[in-house]
């Protein structure tokens, strides 16, 4: 048993001696938790979303802390700007009379880039992630630095100190990755060394838990995809501590290229009813998903095919509370199930957030603004890059990079970019000649763009007439999409990872060396400083701009169905990626990012050379 005596602050939280129950003030306590992530919700909406969870019958909020969202470069932490103030979020939970389950990683999965681990660690060619100091001290040194930074922020908010945090999770679903008790114990000891004594818990699928024994000393057990039967089974296997359904899935994640949004058919009414009837603790993953704004959406690799599967920008997840914060029909159904077992009536739902739309003749009509080619920074010198290197080798986390090679005596051929992560557009001189996608694209989308998948790219047999054939520039503009966040493919660097070869018409193959590299992070500073000139409006890689005048502010969605592939910014806020392979066609723009009067919308599209209308809509689909 692990007990935290908090009587001087009004509460105690502990585990019963027989491991049967969680105890609050010495009495059996059912944790009814809904998960949401501050990083995916504008801070202005945190309170509304917490209130929505409480009105559905929850008494607790579970949240991930995304390490890489707070430490973007080694030793540089941000727990204050925009929606990064974890302490403020937890205090809001307490203000709304909600307890908290804290899930700080260091690895969290969560359909988040690299599972929350900072990409700067990938600058080490031989790095090992999710392992103890004996196997890779560099990784664990970074973990220790993160926990040292986070601990003093968390300690005052523990239930033992009068705060709402009941338990802290150690890592996440480690049983699905490996069996290394020393690693989990090392993380636990890091917290203890910083004055955070727990209680702790772990999260795993039941089969992985039983196989790899990934619980921690004195820690509770949470089950992914858990239900009442699994809790009973774990109690037989691990009788010393309580168990809960740590991730009950009311929906599911969606990848680019899926035929439709996933999880919409899920119905957990029966699971909830059984958990409520038996007074078992649970966490809905997620009660509200929100949005993976910017470049933070993650990816998977299909276990059977090995295909790379990047996640869409929306994290709606078919959750009871929609991406935009609306109570769905499932919300009302589950609220009814839970309410039947509670003695006190549930709070009224908070008022919905206003929405706005503009369609038809009122749609935005962006205009060409500039091009990526007119905004290239100084190149890293060719002698520095014999072979192309990934973003991380150059200290870049997200965005794009341009790899440029001067070709002498060019006569066409077949270009083989063996390992591109994740999407490249290729140009010979000023001419677009095709693309390469790591992710599968439906044929009707790939063919018009001449985009290949796991195949070399045929280049035209003669250079454009405007260029001398003795000196042609080969440009490969690479977009890094989400890093893999689950499984053993997580060492997922971005850019061009292997040497590039060009085979001429005679079948002779030449490895291209000596590249210039232009780093294009597409961060706030880059977008703010765009030069508004465009030397060649017929060379793809263009920025478009529109002004959105508003006399009323509300949440909205930008409908990008007429565009191809790119990124949208509104008043400097990165709404995320769009891609016409779907199923997501609309990007969520929260009202706090808009203002009365004129609003600036900037679109970067990898392929589009003609502007198309952008309608505003009230819903994701």
Rg over CA atoms, rounded to whole Å, is: 26 Å
Give the termini separation.
Answer: 48 Å
Helix content: 10-25%
Major beta-sheet overview: 8 strands, parallel, barrel
Keywords: Glycosidase, Hydrolase
GO molecular function, one term: beta-galactosidase activity
InterPro entries: B-gal_1-like, BetaGal1-like_ABD1, BetaGal_gal-bd, Galactose-bd-like_sf, GH, Gly_Hdrlase_35_cat, Glyco_hydro_35_CS, Glycoside_Hdrlase_35
Domain Beta-galactosidase 1-like first all-beta: 388-439, 470-519
Summarize the structure.
With 621 residues, the protein is of the alpha+beta class.
Description:
- The protein has 621 residues and is an alpha+beta fold.
- It contains eleven helices and 36 strands.
- Helix 8 (269-277) packs parallel to helix 9.
- The radius of gyration is 26 Å and the shape is globular.
- The relative contact order is 0.12.
- Mean pLDDT is 94; it is low at 1-8.
- It is an enzyme of class 3 (hydrolase).
- Residues 388-439, 470-519 form the Beta-galactosidase 1-like first all-beta domain.
- Residues 542-599 form the Beta-galactosidase galactose-binding domain.
């Amino acid at each position: 048993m692990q007990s935290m005596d908090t009587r001087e602050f009004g509460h105690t939280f502990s585990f019963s001696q027989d491991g049967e129950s969680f105890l609050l003030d010495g009495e059996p306590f059912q944790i009814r938790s809904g998960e949401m992530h501050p990083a995916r919700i504008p801070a202005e909406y945190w309170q509304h979303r917490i209130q929505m969870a409480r009105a559905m019958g929850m008494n607790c909020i579970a949240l991930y802390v995304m390490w890489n969202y707070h430490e973007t470069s080694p030793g540089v932490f941000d727990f204050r700007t925009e929606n990064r103030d974890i302490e403020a979020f937890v205090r809001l939970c307490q203000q709304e009379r909600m307890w908290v389950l804290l899930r700080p990683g260091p690895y969290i999965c969560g359909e988040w880039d690299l599972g929350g681990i900072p990409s700067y660690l990938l600058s080490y060619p031989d790095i090992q992630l999710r392992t103890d100091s004996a196997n890779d001290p560099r990784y664990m040194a970074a973990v220790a630095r993160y926990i040292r930074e986070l601990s003093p922020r968390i300690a005052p908010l523990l239930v033992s100190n009068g705060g709402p945090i009941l338990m802290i999770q150690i890592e996440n679903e480690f049983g699905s990755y490996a069996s290394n008790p020393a690693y989990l114990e090392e993380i636990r000891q890091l917290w203890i060394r910083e004055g955070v004594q727990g209680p702790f818990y772990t999260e795993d699928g039941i089969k992985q838990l039983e196989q790899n024994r990934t619980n921690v000393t004195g820690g509770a057990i949470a089950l992914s995809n858990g239900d009442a039967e699994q809790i009973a089974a774990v109690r037989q296997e691990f009788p010393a501590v309580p168990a809960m359904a740590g991730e009950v899935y009311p929906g599911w994640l969606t990848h680019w290229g899926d035929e439709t949004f996933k999880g919409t058919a899920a119905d957990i009414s029966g699971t909830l009813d059984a958990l409520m009837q038996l007074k078992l603790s649970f966490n809905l993953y997620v009660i509200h998903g929100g949005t993976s704004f910017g470049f933070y959406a993650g990816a998977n690799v299909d276990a059977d095919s090995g295909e790379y599967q990047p996640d869409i920008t929306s994290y709606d997840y078919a959750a009871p509370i929609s991406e935009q914060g609306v109570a769905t029909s499932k919300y009302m159904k589950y609220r009814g199930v839970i309410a039947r077992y509670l003695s006190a009536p549930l709070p009224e739902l908070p008022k919905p957030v206003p929405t706005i739309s503009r369609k038809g003749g009122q749609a935005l009509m962006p205009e060409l603004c500039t091009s990526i080619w007119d905004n290239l920074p100084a190149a890293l010198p060719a002698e520095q890059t014999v072979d192309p290197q990934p973003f991380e080798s150059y200290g870049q986390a997200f965005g794009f990079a341009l790899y440029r090679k001067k070709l002498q005596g060019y006569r066409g051929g077949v270009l083989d970019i063996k390992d591109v992560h994740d999407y490249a557009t290729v140009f010979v001189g000023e001419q677009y000649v095709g693309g390469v996608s790591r992710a599968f694209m439906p044929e009707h989308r790939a063919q018009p763009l001449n985009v290949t998948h796991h195949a070399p790219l045929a280049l035209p047999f003669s250079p454009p007439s405007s260029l001398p054939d003795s000196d042609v520039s080969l440009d490969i503009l690479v977009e890094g999409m989400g890093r893999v966040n689950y499984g053993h493919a997580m060492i997922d660097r971005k850019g061009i990872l292997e040497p590039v070869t060009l085979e001429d018409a005679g079948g002779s193959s030449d490895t291209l060396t000596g590249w210039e590299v232009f780093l294009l992070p597409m961060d706030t500073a880059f977008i703010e400083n765009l030069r508004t000139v465009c030397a060649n409006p017929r060379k793809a890689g263009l920025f478009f701009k529109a002004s959105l005048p508003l006399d009323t502010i509300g949440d909205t969605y930008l409908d990008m169905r007429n565009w191809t592939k790119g990124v949208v910014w509104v008043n400097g806020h990165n709404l995320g990626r769009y891609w016409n392979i779907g199923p997501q066609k609309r990007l969520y723009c929260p009202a706090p990012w808009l203002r009365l009067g004129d609003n600036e919308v900037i679109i970067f599209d990898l392929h589009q050379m003609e502007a198309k209308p952008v309608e505003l809509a009230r819903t994701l689909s």
